[in-house]
Specification:
By secondary structure, the protein is an alpha/beta fold. It has 13 helices and 10 strands. The chain starts with a helix and ends in a 5-residue tail after the last helix.
Length: 322
């Protein structure tokens, strides 16, 4: 009888513990990409340190994620900072739809670079592919930051998906693993992706096919920086030893962690505290997070997206916000 009662008590405690756990959906990017890897790793770290938080990484996209947070579908999400600001303001690509429920948790987890991968010696620029005839290009699906960046490039050159196809071209939209396979198998002439460095999909795509990173055309870089707020930069020499002879000019964006405004202050406080106190472990999740630091003006953002009350509380506590 005593043993039976003890077993019931233990079972009841386990059920109560499970019931008390808070479940959070963490929307990221395509499976196999840097964002998904990042979200899964951060989720694991948070669960390790905060036992009553259950965080589940799910596929998403750079432009789709703000809507998932706005509508309460997901509670946490990775978003490029340029698109988070646009979402809050209701500007392109969120025209007329301000996302008032979006909150910043920690800015600048990682930097993400546009990669244009082409066959070695091919010589065709992105402008050649978009404006030319018969090009075949692989890129992520609609709703991703990669795909929107490609749309911005097409708009700059006066092209659309239809005009590329009408000129005999082919557009393949898939997840990163399938993009890599399509390139290395010779199904496409180019891959266009936005990834933290080094990007596993880029490394994989170049296996078995001589390839190189192509610089973005300077006028396109100027346009993306001036019009959409991208950052001018370069994939540093040595990032992909077999794919580049030096720095490769491109644009980049900042991956940041956001939440829905509906997530509780204490929950976000504990999440951001876990991330900041364990920042040294983030590069073990992905090398692109090696530069993240909980310092004023970086993790705290620039004010274009409101800080979640839980994040603000923690940043005040460590003296980097007021």
């Amino acid at each position: 009888m005593v043993r039976h009662s003890l077993a019931l008590a233990i079972a009841a405690a386990m059920v109560a513990g499970t019931a008390a756990a808070e479940t959070l959906e963490f929307t990221a990017g395509d499976v196999g990409g840097v964002w998904y890897t990042t979200a899964a790793g951060v989720a694991q770290l948070v669960q390790e340190k905060q036992r009553d938080l259950l965080v589940k990484a799910v596929p998403g996209g750079g432009v789709a994620n703000p809507a998932k947070l706005q509508n309460g579908v997901s509670q946490l999400g990775l978003v490029q900072s340029i698109f988070a600001t646009a979402a809050v303001r209701g500007t392109t690509p969120f025209d007329g739809k301000p996302h008032g429920n979006l909150r910043l948790v920690a800015q600048g987890l990682a930097k993400n670079y546009i990669h244009h991968l082409r066959p070695r010696g091919d010589g065709k620029t992105l402008a050649d592919l978009i404006k030319g005839r018969g090009a075949s290009i692989a890129l992520p699906r609609s709703g991703s930051t990669d795909e929107y960046t490609f749309r911005f490039a097409m708009r700059h050159y006066g092209a659309t998906y239809d005009t590329i196809r009408q000129a005999g071209g082919k557009i393949v939209q898939a997840d990163y693993g399938d993009i890599a396979n399509a390139f290395k198998d010779g199904q496409v002439d180019a891959a266009f992706v936005l990834l933290g460095i080094p990007g596993a999909a880029v490394i994989d795509a170049a296996q078995g096919r001589a390839a190189e990173l192509a610089p973005l055309p300077a006028p396109l870089i100027d346009h993306l920086v001036a019009t959409y707020g991208y950052t001018r930069g370069a994939v540093p020499a040595g990032t992909y030893p077999s794919l580049q002879a030096g720095d490769v000019a491109t644009v980049l964006t900042s991956t940041s962690l956001y939440s829905s405004a509906a997530v509780g202050e204490e929950t976000v406080y504990r999440i951001v505290r876990t991330i900041c106190e364990n920042a040294a472990r983030l590069p073990d999740i992905h090398k692109s997070m090696a530069g993240f630091a909980c310092v004023r003006g970086e993790a705290t953002g620039d004010g274009s997206v409101p800080l979640h009350a839980g994040a603000l509380r923690y940043f005040k506590e460590i003296g980097i916000a007021s």
